[in-house]
Every structure is written in C-alpha cells, then in structure tokens.
Amino acid sequence: DAKTTQPNSMESNEEEPVHLPCNHSTISGTDYIHWYRQLPSQGPEYVIHGLTSNVNNRMASLAIAEDRKSSTLILHRATLRDAAVYYCILSGKGQGAQKLVFGQGTRLTINP
Amino acid sequence: DVKVTQSSRYLVKRTGEKVFLECVQDMDHENMFWYRQDPGLGLRLIYFSYDVKMKEKGDIPEGYSVSREKKERFSLILESASTNQTSMYLCASSLWAGSEAFFGQGTRLTVV
Questions:
Q1: Is pLDDT at A94 greater than 60 in this prediction?
Q2: pLDDT 10s digits, A81-93
Q3: What's the rounded Cα separation, in Å, for the pair A32 and A28?
Q4: Do A93 and B104 touch (CB under 8 A)?
Q5: Any CB–CB contact under 8 A between B100 and chain A?
Q6: Which whole number is the average pLDDT over A56-76?
Q7: What strands lie across the sheet with A84-91, from one edge to the other?
Q8: How far A13 CA sits from the closest chain B CA (Å)?
Q9: Which of residues 32-91 of A touch B (CB under 8 A)?
Q10: Which residue from A88, A61, A64 is spatially nearest to A75, judged by alpha carbons?
Q11: How far apart are the C-alpha atoms of B16 and B93, rounded to whole Å?
Q12: Among residues of chain B, what percentage have pLDDT more than 90?
C-alpha cells in the first residue's frame, strides 16, 4: 500500500491561512489523494480529494505537486472550528485497492 | 442528507460474548469499511467490502469477521469478544475508490 507522511502537529492563528503538507513518494498513477479531518468526538469527515490537478471547494484547496509525490491542503482562513486531526490518504482505483488506509494524521491547533 | 448509521453509540459486552456491530448506509454505495480507533494508534482498517457478499481483509482482521448480505448493510462480528477489542469502531461507505467516504458517528465498545 502506498503510504503518506505528515507532520504530527501544526499550529496556526485564527484567520490566517494554513498549509498542511503530505508526502506520498510511492503514489501510483491511479491513486487519488484524499484529505479527511476528524473533530473531537466525531467520525472523520471528507475535506477534499484530487488526482492530478489542483482542486478547490468551499472548505479548502488541494495543491498537488507536478510529480504527485506530495500535496498540500490549504485552509485559506482558519477558524477555531478547523482545529482537528487532518489525514492525507491515498485511494486506489481497482477492486481490492479501494480501501482507505489512514495514517497518524496532523493535529492542527488554532490559536485565537 | 446522506447517512451512515451505526446501530449503537455505546455498547458494553462481556468477555467471550459474540458481538454484532451493525452499519447501514442509505446512499447505494458500493464500498463499505470497518475501522477501529485507539489512542495513539489512529484509525486502523479491519475489513472492507466492495460489493454484496464480497469482503477483503484490512490491516487488523484477526478476531473479527464481517457480513454483507445486502448492499446497504455491513456487519462487523466479534466471534468471542476480548478485552483488547475495547475500542471505538467506525463504519464508512463510499460510492467508488475515487469518491468521498462518509463515516458514521462510531460505536464505543467496552468489553469487560
């Protein structure tokens, strides 16, 4: 299984942008890059995903390196509610490769 | 509103009991997953299923089995519960490998 590497923790200030990095040097050509976050006492929730091109949605932006060996989740203006553990995950396309395997994630702290 | 529903939020069982954790999704999703989450170990994949009656082992299948007789329902079975299976159990579903996954709220199982 392709693995991802993320920093254990990051800290930022409210209303500032946050860039959460993820390395996935063994990514295959058909692997999607997913980001999920888990708020305290809740199940993980989807944030964003992409394959090759940068992606934007109402929650965040995903910047994918040209060689796809790394990506960055961008929260444009962090709020206190964005404090969570953020997971970067690779998901394959074929049968049996559809599983989502979570790493340790990055614990994001937002300071008021 | 899309939903993944787990039958119980909290469950207490005795060592040696057979335990069923039920998960139902209403989105006609192909893929369903069972994870357990423990402090310091993150989310670990137990089993997943990509079709009715199809199942694949995840990273920690020992001591567990699963059943998927209908598309919307994925059951996790602890044949003989042990104290080291005390954990938070999370169910998820997704339409296909590249799509977002939706998680239930989790079942906190305590085996005494």
A1: no
A2: 999 999 999 887 6
A3: 9
A4: no
A5: yes
A6: 95
A7: A9-13, A106-111, A84-91, A32-38, A45-50
A8: 25
A9: 32, 34, 36, 42-46, 49, 51, 87, 91
A10: A61
A11: 29
A12: 77
Token pair of A74, please?
Answer: 């961008």
Token couple for B37: 């989450």
Kindly state the tokens that stand for A68. 């796809």
pLDDT at A92: 72
Considering only CB atoms, B42 lies closest to which of A32, A96, A102, namely A102
Q: Does B94 touch chain A (CB under 8 A)?
A: yes
Strands A70-75 and B4-6: what pairing?
unpaired
Which residues 32-51 of chain B have a CB within 8 Å of chain A?
A: 33, 35, 42-45, 48, 50
Determine the distance in angstroms separating the CA of B31 from the nearest CA of chain A, rounded to an integer: 8
Residue B57: both structure tokens together: 């082992």
User: Which tens digits make up the pLDDT trace of A5-35?
Assistant: 999 999 999 999 999 999 999 888 888 899 9
Token pair, residue A76, equals 């444009």
E-assigned strand segments in B52-86: 54-57, 65-70, 73-78
* CB spacing of A99 vs B43 below 8 angstroms: no
* Residue A95 pLDDT > 70: no
Which residue type, as a one-letter code, is found at position A62?
L
A92 with B97: Cβ contact below 8 A? yes
